[in-house]
Amino acid sequence: AARLSGGENRLVSLPLSRIRVIMKSSPEVSSINQDALFLTAKATELFVQYLATYSYKHGRGKEKNALTYSDLSHTAEECETFQFLADILPKKILASKYLKMLEKEKRDGEVGEGDEEDEEEEDEDVTVGEDVGS
Question: Which portions of the sequence form the region Disordered (predicted)?
Fold first, then answer.
């Protein structure tokens, strides 16, 4: 196995010191072999490159000639290979939509309540949406 010299550090773009810190943050890791550090850095770099390329090709990147967060989150949600990233790259929504979703879930949880209470909650939704949007 090749040892890392000054020239071999250029084979990876990610800072090896940061990767070492992340690896050492695991309680099971006591020491890190230089080869393992290099391979982890290179594998991470290739994974990020693949995710970006896939997201660009399958998103709106071609239209805008740019890779956006929404392209990445769409890839994480739609592509089976990247679904493990769905919690890390959630779709962005407006605060007003989020508040409406919370209110709907709250209403759905109160099954069997009277119609008058539902009407009052709908009035509250309009007020909340107006406050957040302005």
Answer: 105-134
pLDDT digits (tens, 9 = 90+) for 65-124: 888 888 899 899 888 999 899 888 888 878 888 888 888 888 887 754 554 444 444 444
Inter-residue contact 5 to 35 (CB < 8 Å):
no
**Residue among 52, 45, 97 nearest 76 (CA):** 52
Amino acid (one-letter) located at 118 = D
Q: What is the dihedral of CA 93, 99, 102, 104, to 10 degrees?
A: -100
Nearest partner of 130 among 95, 102, 103, 104, judged by Cα: 95
- Outline where the chain has alpha helix (H): 16-24, 34-58, 61-64, 69-78, 95-109, 115-133
Distance of CA 93 to the CA centre of its chain: 13
Question: Does this model's pTM top 0.70?
Answer: no
